[in-house]
Amino acid sequence: MKWTQSYIPTLKETPAEAELKSHQLMLRAGLMRKLSSGIYTLLPLGFRVLKKVIRIVEEEMDRAGAQELLLPVLSPSELWQATGRWSVYGQEMMRLEDRHKRLFALGPTHEEIITDLVRHEIRSYRQLPQNLYQIQVKFRDEVRPRFGIMRAREFVMKDGYSFAADEKSAEEIYGEMYEAYDRIFSRCGFRFRIVEADTGAIGGSFSHEFMVEADSGEEMMVVCGQCDYAANLSRATSADDIPGKDEKPAVLQKVSTPDKRTVEEVTGFLKEKPGKLVKTLLFKTEGRMVAFLIRGDDELNETKASNVLNGGKLEMAGPAEIESATGAPVGFTGPVGLKNVEIIADKKVQCMKNMVAGANEKDAHLKNVNFPRDFKIDRVADIRQVREGEPCPKCKKPLNIKHGIEVGHVFKLGTKYSRSMNAVFLDANGHEKQMVMGCYGIGVSRIIAAAIEQSHDENGIIWHKNIAPFLVHILSVNAGEKDVVSASEELYRKLDSAGVEVLMDDRDETAGVKFKDADLIGLPKRVTIGSKSLKEGKVEIKDRATGNVEKMSMSEAVDCLKAFQSE
Amino acid sequence: MKWTQSYIPTLKETPAEAELKSHQLMLRAGLMRKLSSGIYTLLPLGFRVLKKVIRIVEEEMDRAGAQELLLPVLSPSELWQATGRWSVYGQEMMRLEDRHKRLFALGPTHEEIITDLVRHEIRSYRQLPQNLYQIQVKFRDEVRPRFGIMRAREFVMKDGYSFAADEKSAEEIYGEMYEAYDRIFSRCGFRFRIVEADTGAIGGSFSHEFMVEADSGEEMMVVCGQCDYAANLSRATSADDIPGKDEKPAVLQKVSTPDKRTVEEVTGFLKEKPGKLVKTLLFKTEGRMVAFLIRGDDELNETKASNVLNGGKLEMAGPAEIESATGAPVGFTGPVGLKNVEIIADKKVQCMKNMVAGANEKDAHLKNVNFPRDFKIDRVADIRQVREGEPCPKCKKPLNIKHGIEVGHVFKLGTKYSRSMNAVFLDANGHEKQMVMGCYGIGVSRIIAAAIEQSHDENGIIWHKNIAPFLVHILSVNAGEKDVVSASEELYRKLDSAGVEVLMDDRDETAGVKFKDADLIGLPKRVTIGSKSLKEGKVEIKDRATGNVEKMSMSEAVDCLKAFQSE
Fold first, then answer.
1. Which of A98, A124, A128 best probes binding to B when mutated, by most B CB atoms within 10 angstroms?
2. Residues 6+ apart with CB under 8 A from A51
3. For the CA atoms of chain A, what is the radius of gyration?
4. What CA–CA distances, in Å, run from B192 to B52, B161, B181, B209, B503?
């Protein structure tokens, strides 16, 4: 492709709207433009990257035996009502009314739609398993769209769904998808981690997220520096020790703690360590009150807490609600004597001895609180958040907390949707059974942004060969000179006819502008053709990633770049 | 692909909902399923065809120098309001409100969106021309969705837009697109005609439709049996003679025609030929009344009539309105003495002599009406519909009227959108000019249905090789026998590893079911492997289109099918 026949509107200035490096570079390098908040056009250069990503995804999905189809964007409200998601999705789901006043959703995901399809066709275990996927534009009306296509309202997603006759078969497909994802993200050139993810209210025992490591990532993951342990924050555990677990229970004692409300204030005043205190956090959920107990030096992970309540929405109780539930103002809540409130304790709380806790009385705390002597626990669960440096649950080495960009998610759904939508089949004995499902997502357009986020420098993008819009950038320095023009044209023609993806900057611009744009666009190999080196019969090839420069003859350059393409 | 590992739900019965053959076959052959009225899922087999069509379209568009991008589905109402199409589109355009109460359209087409993109980037004639396209799902809330994906509410379209500095450049791109479309539809295996199309209210002198010949087609085209003349009904003309044009004007005469209202009644009663009468058709348009004059034996083409009024909406006047405008009831309207009504006459009316016309008086007509002696004409235009058998305007041989399916449309838009959206650039002299635009559409998903409509028999689909979901269908007759199974597997493996697209029916079904399904799905070559012919060391290859059967050895079969694939 020649630049003058392309549509590559690069920008000299960084647009003010863009915070994230990938967002800035996608605008500056002419990969995309904003049409409206969270809604973007992919320009030809950006679209070429998208197509390369799509091809990688398709090849690996097909290799894993999945079959591609295309579901509609519009889906009738009835299907969403069957699973309850018409209301659960709330404002995030975009909806419209057709000319006959029928309500439709613009698919944010397609579990309902594909389950509806399959339940009408599959009757027998002989027709199972099925593994179907599509690559499609999806819609989510994000509260705060941001970071360009990283968190957009319209985006391209690969969503796949599997249907199996039993758990074993479902797990086999899960494994195949896991492997396929591993290959896909490796081929995209990512440094990524596969983390155990929260299965949440959906149940089922498997879920993994594929996280591209990037400091700017919105997601947090807990990874071991030593072994392969990796999990997201709402799933991670540690082998943290429980100090003081061997203490003997002492006599319960009420102490005056005037105006001491926070963990620091109370434990400082009582000269205890924060880990001695048990925090009692009151939340409202579906019209009732629950209390989460957690050690004073730990933090509650709200996703873990919500999962205990099957994904119920949690809202922190307000001062009036706390006073009415406990009889005391904020800061003095404790589990002892707490009535009409479900008490859910973190695993670590069970083992604590001689705790400090609020007395449910203004300006008072209790010392030497002990379970089960002094209070009841309705449920015990892992609800704390793992901290940097805690010991790995597998190998006891220190854990790190890192930022990441989620690009893929595999999920064993179980029978959640087949149950509510009655997707059943007859097994070998003629018994009706629910299909066991899995779902598998990839943020296809997000991959473009994630790739740039992970691979750029101060001058621009550094594309991995497998997803670069072109592989070779021909740049002529003295474009006014006949020799330079004809050498450039010749190289372009030779590479193009050899099937090497090449972009030639044939614009009437200064060398400075061209060099800047070449670095900005970031194709893997840049060939510079100038009159000086041409007199020695040489051209210059620069590797964008390493910065290495090699001089060679024209025919060597052609061979070298052909070899690079087919490597 | 093996059938048991695929998702190909064929149907034995023809679904009642489907009228059109292509619609029936797409359902029966497991190419698609309906989700809601006019909204379909493309199943894996249908999706494979779609991908092949997309690849052909992309290859030919790219070869013609166009560049692919991806515009959003959602577009803000403001852009549509700028061109007035927010209201013009009416209920056909699907719309939604986001969480911030902003209105968006689901793109039925993208002139506004791409013009908005280009006007912000293109400043100079040096950056022109640009030819950009996308392949995308589109939305149109059809009043009466029908014929499956032929007229759906959600469908895949290729829409391209070109921007040029002047008419000449715009026409060059138009020509390139015309040629590219010719190649695209040839490669899809269509018998098609390129017809001159109506440019309508948009203006500009070029528009062509690419019509697949099919008796079931919704569109009508006028084609010459002799020369290459072809036009759609709202554009077609003929070299029809004007009988009686040499008559001398006779004296105007009022005659009593009690209760004679229709052309047949009046001319029968007066013993004149229908071609002697001039019909006066009253229509309302934008709050006023217009009269169209047309010869008694001609029909008005409403699109042509509307084009005279720059695409204004036409509504036939009711009895009360006719009486109030003419003073007479329906059936006695004529041009003589007609006041406060614009009179638009067909070209042929001008030359008529001694016409019969309504007298604007109950039970009376006029004889020997002559223009311009007896009435005025405000505008003369071609508003009649060409009839089967009329002489071709180019070669005078008889014209045929045929049904067709529109699969493509190229359009020279001129400055309609660049004017209303201020898409301007500076020319070589620094003067601001409006870009000259063209637009180019292809009904990508419709191509699948059109191909089936044009190529099927009573047993099923007959795919053209270039768009067939697979090329080869392996069918084992005695699937219980070891030799047959191993021969089938061997052939499958050899073809698959040679890159031949092959589907093997490995189901545990009777030969009858398998043969029926093979014909239904309609892959170009079927290989039958049975124990009897296998004993002679032979397999059987049947051509789906011709029905020709050849017996050959396994290795000959492999060579033959490899050659077929690479032909």
1. A98
2. none
3. 29
4. 19, 23, 11, 10, 30
Question: Distance, in angstroms, between A59 CA and closest chain B CA?
Answer: 14
The type of residue at A417 is: Y
**B184, B273: one domain:** no
Judge if A440 and A479 occupy the same domain: no
pLDDT at B242: 63
Please give the residue of chain B at the shortest CA–CA distance from A95: B96
pLDDT tens digits, one per residue of A26-54: 999 999 999 999 999 999 999 999 999 99
Q: Is residue B30 part of a domain?
A: yes
Nearest-CA neighbor of B408 among B563, B553, B197? B197
Rounded Cα–Cα distance for residues B406 and B192 (Å): 9
- Please indicate, yes or no, whether residues A109 and A175 belong to a single structural domain of this protein: yes
**Which domain-ending residue is among B349, B381, B413?**
B381
Closest chain A C-alpha to B141 CA, distance in angstroms: 7
Q: How far apart are CA A400 and CA A390, in angstroms?
A: 8
Contacts of A99 in chain B (CB under 8 A): 91, 141, 143
**Residues A370, A229 share a domain:** no
**Do the chains contact at A36 and B70, CB–CB below 8 Å?**
no
Number of domains making up chain A:
3
CB within 8 Å: A33 and B117: yes
User: For residue B401, how many C-alpha atoms fall within 13 Å in the half-sphere facing its CB?
Assistant: 15
CATH number at residue A290: 3.90.960.10
CB contact under 8 A, B36 and A69: no
Spatial CB neighbours of A26, under 8 Å, sequence gap ≥ 6: A32, A46, A148, A149, A448, A449, A452
Which domain range does residue B503 map to? 470-566
- In this complex, do B41 and A96 lie within 8 Å of one another by their Cβ atoms? no
Q: Is residue A171 in a domain?
A: yes
pLDDT value for A17: 87
Give the model confidence (pLDDT) of B67-110 as tens digits: 999 999 999 999 999 999 999 889 999 999 999 999 999 999 99
Same domain? A21 vs A119:
yes
Enumerate the residues of chain A whose CB falls inside 8 A of the CB of residue B43.
69
Q: What is the ipTM of this complex?
A: 0.91
Residue A362 lies in a domain: yes
* Distance separating alpha carbons of residues A90 and A88, to the nearest angstrom: 5
CA distances from A357 to A69, A242, A266, A274, A370 (A): 58, 17, 9, 11, 10
Predicted structure pTM score: 0.91
Q: How confident is the model at residue B63 (pLDDT cuts 50, 70, 90)?
A: very high
- Do you know the residue count of chain B? 567
**Distance (Å) from the C-alpha of residue B355 to the closest C-alpha of chain A?**
47
